Amino acid sequence: MAMKKCVAAFALCLSLSPAGFAQERVDLSTLDAAMPGPRTQVLVLGTVHLSQGGPEKFDPAALQPVLQRLAAYKPDIITIEGLSGETCEVMRHRVAYKQAIEDYCPDVAPAQAALGIDTWAALDQVDATLKAWPSQPAPSQRRHLAALFLAAGDPSSAMVQWLQLPDAERHAGDGLDDALAQGLRKRESGRNENVQIAARLAARLGLQRVFPVDDHTGDNLDIDDEDAFGKAITEAWHGASAEALKSREHVDALHKSGDMLATYRAVNSPEVLRLAIASDFGQALAEPSPQRYGRQYVGGWETRNLRMAANVHATFREHPGARVLSVVGSSHKPWFDGLLEQMQGVDIVDAEQVLE
């Protein structure tokens, strides 16, 4: 009996015969058919990285049309493309992750010194504080929780607390020293979608945190000749189609213009995504080096997405029926959509409809 294997990122289906390596699989797609209660809704919002490109002068107000549409979706849980404090702390014990730590892990030392605690104590105190969180927290409680989040390596969640403070209450105290408070104030206008979209939306909706779900352990490739690897991947990208290059230029022009709603509509368009994925990972898979550098690159990418999708699932496993928003670089979106829709009781929300 022939069967089909589908690759969601490329909308490609291959018929496989018994003569090959295909075997009949157990179909899990109907496992939750009789499941009582509401299904979990997951909206994967592909994002541009605001720190890369865009108008010369960044105006956070330009994101308001995007935030309004996301607020109407009313997520209960928001995840971001960032490493958790726990992941960073584990990575600090391995030399192999030195570069990733420098690139992606925030400096927790100042907040830990201010509070006199380490990462593990900060993580435990965050959990305990949120479990006992009052419906009407005092400003002092928000400042202290913000300090705990900073010590725990979660500056975006610290911003969720900071942004819910009245402007007059955004000052040092309750664990935040002057430098930490100034750092949070600076983040208010920074080019960072984890703050300008995720944290601001969480604060608007009265949520208490966001959830970092990134992972750079799976794509930490051990490459003997990094120059040859980089050259091979770069040359593969140079083979992108004219159509893909035109699409990329169109998105870049929208971003540079400051029309953020049009930008987000574009990068969440299936056609734009198909061209972007084909010009990046599709080109890499066709790369002809004997070392199969392109396949190693894509293997790291897919491992990273698998671990990230698992981290997203962990945020709602105790909250069946939740409404989840996952803000992630747009190239991740096809993988997130494909992986998360395989989870039981989960429906993927159409980002294009939300952004209409």
| Termini Cα gap | 43 Å
Strand order of the largest sheet: 5-4-6-3-7
% residues in beta strands: 5-15%
The computed structural class is alpha/beta
Uncertain runs: 1-5, 7-16
Sequence of secondary-structure elements:
EEEHEHHHHHHHHEHHHHHEHEH
Tally the helices: what do you get? Answer: 16
Q: What characterizes the major β-sheet? A: 5 strands, parallel
Number of strands: 7
What is the residue-mean pLDDT, rounded to a whole number? 93
Radius of gyration: 22 Å
Portion in helices: 40-55%
Summarize the structure.
This protein has 356 residues and is α/β, with parallel strands linked by helices.
Labels describing this entry:
two-stranded antiparallel ribbon, alpha/beta, single chain, 16 helices, 356 residues, five-stranded parallel beta sheet, disordered N terminus
Describe this structure in words.
It is globular, with a radius of gyration of 22 Å. The chain is built from 16 helices and seven strands. The strands form two sheets. It has a five-stranded parallel sheet, sandwiched between helices. The N terminus is likely disordered. The longest helix has 24 residues. Helix 7 packs across helix 9. The protein has about 350 residues and is α/β, with parallel strands linked by helices.
